[in-house]
Amino acid sequence: MHSKKDDMFLIPGFGGHVIASCDLHEHGNKPKFPRLRFRKTPCCMTTANKTLLDSCCKSEHLVESRATGETFMTMYGTAAKIKTEAVMVFKLDDNGNAVYTQDTGDLYIFITESEPICLLTAS
User: Fold this and answer.
1) Residue 41 lies in a domain
2) Is 69 helix (H, G, I), strand (E, B) or coil?
């Protein structure tokens, strides 16, 4: 994803624990790999749910709201039947914290085959 706020490319690493950031003007050929610190994980993540999620094919996507400048990471897992088993959304802050959220305010997040999109709802 290209972040308009940070004016650089951001790519989630495997498992969503690391985000590669590449500012071609500042970093050149040496991208940075800041590690995320997950805060406030969902209380519904019981051992059984974690086991189910671990057995799924997981996917992580970064999405930035152009309206608010907020960055979110979505994680979802699909079973072999191509059925979504779990969806989690984490709001990323400037300190590298990924805070679980069930409320994105007036924002809708769409995960498409080409790229994730974050749009402001019409009021």
Assistant:
1) yes
2) coil
Q: Could you tell me which of 56, 64, 12 has the C-alpha nearest to residue 38?
A: 12
Range of the domain at 116: 37-120
Helix (H) or strand (E) holding 51: helix 47-54
Predicted confidence at residue 111, as pLDDT, reads 82
Residue 74 maps to a domain: yes
Does 21 reside within a domain? Answer: no
Please work out, in degrees rounded to the nearest 5, the angle formed at the alpha carbon of residue 68 by the alpha carbons of 32 and 38.
45
Q: Outline where 1-123 has alpha helix (H).
A: 47-54
Higher pLDDT, residue 14 or 122: 122
Encode pLDDT of 14-25 as tens digits.
667 777 777 766
d(CA 117, CA 48): 31
In a domain, 9, yes or no: no
Are the C-beta atoms of residues 73 and 92 closer than 8 Å to each other?
Answer: yes
- pTM for the model stands at 0.52
| Strands 97-101 vs 37-39: parallel, antiparallel or unpaired | parallel
> How many domains is the chain built from?
1
CA–CA separation, 119 and 101 (whole Å): 17
